[in-house]
């Protein structure tokens, strides 16, 4: 049985990765957000206790991890960020691998198994995927979305990321998300069709 195409989805801040992921699900893909996986991990006692031991009770008031407090601890300090990534990424990787195995057993098979991976190229993770999609958007559109989301430490986050142009060049498919949802879905539907044709 052929495996379901395994696809990594990425893009810069405000490009609309989550919107694209939701659109792909509506179009018949199985989807997973690594950001959502990290949320789940922070809710687990072992990860919560690990970050509290590192940075103190202030990062988990009332026993609930405060991601903005974590961001303050790590984004300006490469050593602390590297420590956190070393704790989280192996757990995220295991969760993604288990999810992919589960998706491959689904009947009927989905059009693709798509994982939203914000720092995919920066972390050198693109090699695990059969294909990659970079979502890009006009700068003024991205700025408006990022402002509306009130990203914590957004300057530091942006500094860690490759430019939109770099991501687009390295991706198998570059999708522009500056227009309507219908336009986005048409572009993504075309990508899924190409992936299906290559199976």
Strand content: 5-15%
Number of H- or I-type helical stretches: 9
- Work out the radius of gyration: 17 Å
DSSP helix fraction: 40-55%
Overall outline = globular
Distance between the termini: 11 Å
Report the strand count. Answer: 5
Spans of at least 5 consecutive residues with low confidence: 152-156
Main sheet summary: 5 strands, parallel
Residue-averaged pLDDT: 88
Strand order of the largest sheet: 2-3-1-4-5
Order of helices and strands: EHEHHHHEEHHHEH
Helix/sheet category: alpha/beta
Write the layout of secondary structure elements.
Layout: E1 6-11, H1 17-26, E2 30-33, H2 34-43, H3 45-55, H4 67-74, H5 78-104, E3 113-116, E4 131-136, H6 139-149, H7 154-160, H8 164-170, E5 173-176, H9 181-197
Parallel strand pairs: 1-3, 1-4, 2-3, 4-5
Describe this structure in words.
- This protein is an alpha/beta fold and 199 residues long.
- Helices cover 54% and strands 12% of the residues.
- The chain is built from nine helices and five strands; from the N terminus they run E-H-E-H-H-H-H-E-E-H-H-H-E-H.
- It has helices at residues 17-26, 34-43, 45-55, 67-74, 78-104, 139-149, 154-160, 164-170, 181-197; strands at 6-11, 30-33, 113-116, 131-136, 173-176.
- The N and C termini lie close together (11 Å).
């Amino acid at each position: 049985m052929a495996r379901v195409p395994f696809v990594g989805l990425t893009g810069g801040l405000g490009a609309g990765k989550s919107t694209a992921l939701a659109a792909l699900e509506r179009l018949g893909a199985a989807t997973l957000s690594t950001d959502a996986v990290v949320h789940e991990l922070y809710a687990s006692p072992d990860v919560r206790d690990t970050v509290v031991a590192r940075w103190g009770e202030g990062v988990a008031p009332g026993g609930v991890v405060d991601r903005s407090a974590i961001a303050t601890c790590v984004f300006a300090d490469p050593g602390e960020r590297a420590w956190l990534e070393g704790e989280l990424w192996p757990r995220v990787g295991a969760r993604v691998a288990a999810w992919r195995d589960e998706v491959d057993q689904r009947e009927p098979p989905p059009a693709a198994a798509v994982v939203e991976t914000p720092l995919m190229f920066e972390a050198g993770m693109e090699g695990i995927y059969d294909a990659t999609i970079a979502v890009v958007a006009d700068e003024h559109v991205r700025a408006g979305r990022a402002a509306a989301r009130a990203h914590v430490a957004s300057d530091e986050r942006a500094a860690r990321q490759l430019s939109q142009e770099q991501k687009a060049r390295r991706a198998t498919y570059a999708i522009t998300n500056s227009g309507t949802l219908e336009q986005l879905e048409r572009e993504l539907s075309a990508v899924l069709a190409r992936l299906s044709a290559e199976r």
